[in-house]
Each structure stands twice: as C-alpha cells, then as structure tokens.
Specification:
heterodimer; A: mainly alpha; 0% strand; B: nine-stranded antiparallel β-sheet; elongated
Amino acid sequence: VASVTSTGYPGSVPSGIPTWEQVARHYGRFIYTVAYRLAGNHDDAQDLVQEVLVRVQRGLATYRPGSMEGWLSRITTNAFLDEVRRRKRRPATSLPDEIDRLPVGTPSADEALALESVPDHVQDALRALPDEYRVAVVLCDIVGLSYYEIAESQEIPVGTVRSRIHRGRAMLRGALQ
Amino acid sequence: MSGWPTGTGPTGADTGHLDEALSAYLDGELDAHSAQLAYQHLSICGYCRAELDAMSVVRTTLRNAPPIEPPFGFIERTIRQRRRRPVAPVVAAVVGIAALWLLVALVLGGGPLRVVPPVDDIADAQAQLEPGQADEVERFDADAIQFQVTRRGDIPDAFRAPEALGPAEYDAGFQALNRDGWLAVYEYDGETVAVYQQLGEYEVGSLPGGGERFEIDGDPAWRSAVEGRNVVVVQRGGMTYTIVGDPDVEDLIDLAEDLPRREDPEGQSIGDRASEAVERFLDAFSFGG
C-alpha cells in the first residue's frame, strides 16, 4: 500500500498547504491509481482525475494539514460516485458538459491500446464488483485507510464498511486465487 | 454463542462462523476482546481457518498490486491546460465585450465616463458568499453579472485582496465582471466583503439615498447603505471602487485606503488610458497570449 502513496515525482512532498499544482505533481500517480482502480479503465480514469483536480483547486483553501492521501481519496471516491449517479440518471448521455472539464490531450490509439492491453487481473476482478463494494475495497486495500477513515469519508457506519469490505473480498476470491 | 465478534452471515442470521469478522480480524480492526474470541474460534473451526486463508490471499494480492502510471505527460498536460483557463468561456466573452465597450466609450465619447455602481448586484454577490461556505459557491448569474469562483493562490494579481484584509489571509473569494467592471468577493475573519471596480468617475448622487460625501486620503468618497449593509464608494485615479460589506463602515474605509492608486501620469491621453485598461483586463484574464 505504501508504494501507492509514493509519488514518483522529483522534489519533496510539500509541507503545510500546497498549491493545487504541487498536489497534481506530487500526488498525481496516487490520484490516478485510485481513479483507475475505481473507474476501471484509463479513459474514465483520466476524466476522473481531471474532475478531482478541479475539486482540489476549488477546495484547497479548506484543506488542513493532515493526511493528504486521505483527503484526496475522499475527493476521488466522491467524484467517482457522483459520476456513477449521473450516469444512472442519464444513461444515454455522455460525460456531462462541465465548464471546467478540459479537453486534455488523450493518448494516441497506440498508447491507449498499450495501456489497456497490460494484463491486470486485479483490475479485471475489481471491475466486476458493485460500485459501493469496490469503493470500500479500494480505500482499504489500495489506499490503506482504516475502517474508521473509510466510514468518515463515505459518511456510512463502520459496520457497513466492514460488511462491504468482507463481501467485496469474498466476491474477488474466485478471480484472484 | 455469546460474545461473538459479529458472527452474522450476509443475511444477518447467526451462522456460527466468523463471517464478516474475518476481514476485520485480518485488518486488525477488532477490539482486543473480539480479536481474542476470534482467535479462539479459529483454533477449533476448520471452515473459518480456510476462509481466513482465502481472504488473506485476496487481501495480499490487492495490497501488492503496483501503482498505476498515468499516460506519459498526462498530469503535466492537465496542469498546463488548467493554468491557461482561469475563467469560464461565458465570462471570457463578457470580458472581451466589456473591454471593447470601454475602449469605444472612452476614445469616441470625449468627456469623462460616468459610472453608476450596481450596488444591489454587488450586495447580492456579497450575500452569496457566506462565511465558511466558500466551497459551496460555484458560479451563478445574478442578472447581468457572471461570476466565477476563484481560490486563494489562483487569483490574478489584479484581483488580489486589498492589504487591509491582511496579506493572503482571506480564505476564499470569487471575482466577476459584467459590462463595465469587475467584482471580487473576499472572505476574511468570518466576514465577507465585496469590492467592485469600474473605469470611470462616480455619477454623484447615484447611491441609494444619494450618499454622504467625505474623503479618503484626499480622494472623494461617499457612504451609504443597502439591504442593511454598508456601502463605501471612493473615486481614485480614474477608477470608481464600490465596497459593500457587513463590517463597520470604518472597517470598509480602512479597506478603501488600501485600494490601489492607479498610476495616471500627466499627459496620458484618454486613448492611452483606455488601451491600458483593456490590456489590464486582457492580462488579468489571460487573453493576452
């Protein structure tokens, strides 16, 4: 789990309240990993990361020094679940035409093919989980949050967290063993 | 079995096995007493031991999964493109129209431009940013004024909070621009203050109740009130600043003292002044290339 939180970018992790650009650079890989594990593919992960960075930019003034990974995980999962709800409401439409959504250059066809063709049985297994179970499992086993932290970030009881993690892992057994 | 950690299966019925408590046991999320009971049960229940092993494999596999690398250059591209887009397109269009309108009005219009501060709109905008709720404010359209959220660290220099609010001590703010000026609303120390800037001279008597005239640092100023909020207008360097806020009027005057004094060198033509104003608008909103 610790390897996910290492950023892979040069320079020290900013102390105090960083700028959103520092967050993007230092925690970009972390956000992307969580987004990819939740969203299930690189296209949606990129959309999700952009939305997360918009929310980081807007919300940074309220961030208080503490667990940046926990804060970013919360933003990422909330953005993911918001998008899930939006798609359920409007299943026939594409991504919302948000004014803040940027047409960031998408990877080339070869690049996309290369990204998607990397065998990833973990991702395949996670993709099959119901969204709520996937969020709980990702926050616990990919991000490394405690049950209490997950309960707080998702605003659900700890007992619900425990149940979702256990049932999610149980559903993954066949694919991961 | 009394004292069971949870002992309920997916249906909620007591199964006699650890079930959900297995994952909590693996994750160290049971309290000491429950963990001890689970340990004792595992020592006598082969079914739960097998379940524990299976869950442990899943957990370890997930936790050993490597981080996912974003596509090459994705993060940097996202940063660059967000940096280039400080305002929404609709605001951008309004800014462009405002700049051109000002240029035409000043170059062709001849005499000094008179402006009427839209105090009701400014007060509405100020009321939109409740202290501590800056996160919930996104953007809104109050009649003619388009608003754009701005965060500390992302405010163009031209719209930095006045020094009276303290150096970078405001928590959040947003800026806006309508046909003839720009607006910034700042949150500071539990209060919100709106500052509206227009290019031109104040149309005397246009404040609610006409306004009481006084001076701030030698500049003509007027004070009034709207919807229970104090209003201070100061005319400085060809600009009219209108400040609306909850604090005492004396606090607003302190704030007004720190508003920028625009350089207005002798001999500068109206056209030069208009061009400079347009440039400043364009620079502030990153349209200058």
